[in-house]
Amino acid sequence: MAVKVKQHRGRWWVFIDHKGKRKAKCIGKSQRAAQEVAGKIEAKLKLGDFSLSDEKPQRSFDAYFRNWLDTYVKAHCKERTSYLYEAAFRLYLLPAFGQKDIATITREEVKTLAYDLLARRKQRSTVAGVLTPLIEMFNHALEDGHVDRNPALRILRRSRKEEGEQKQKASFLTREELGVLLHTCQEHFPAYYPLNPRVRNG
Asked: Which residues contact 32 (CB under 8 A, 6 or more apart)?
């Protein structure tokens, strides 16, 4: 049996390792509080109780996100941003996560949501707009010690194939357009015209 108190990212955690079972519990910013909780848990384990019934109540995604919208977003974001966040929540996030405890939402579940939207021919910018409020909500939950990671980060990283396609879309000046550019530069910006390789080499 092992009950340890450790600090992680500015928060104090209690880690329990008992008969092959492991649990972690975020206490907050107080080391003293974490030590007190660890003592209580250790006493319960000696009595054979591994239920940790004094754990923080479950925080459903539905309730937590609504509260975040009504408090932080309305106080700190523009009305348009608040509207977009609420729409993303109502149309996509709530159907995906519903009453799940925010601490149990996994990166795989967030990826499933994002890839499902892309498969339904949603624009990448639309999917990013759905993930943005989710990322922000989890950032605040992380700061408050309700979760130990943000599962929504870097979901839409571009693949090498997409990056290659993006580069292929680059548009270069035609010979005629280049001539117009150099002529305009010579006439209106003579100080920069020597950048023309023909002039410099001539």
From this structure: none
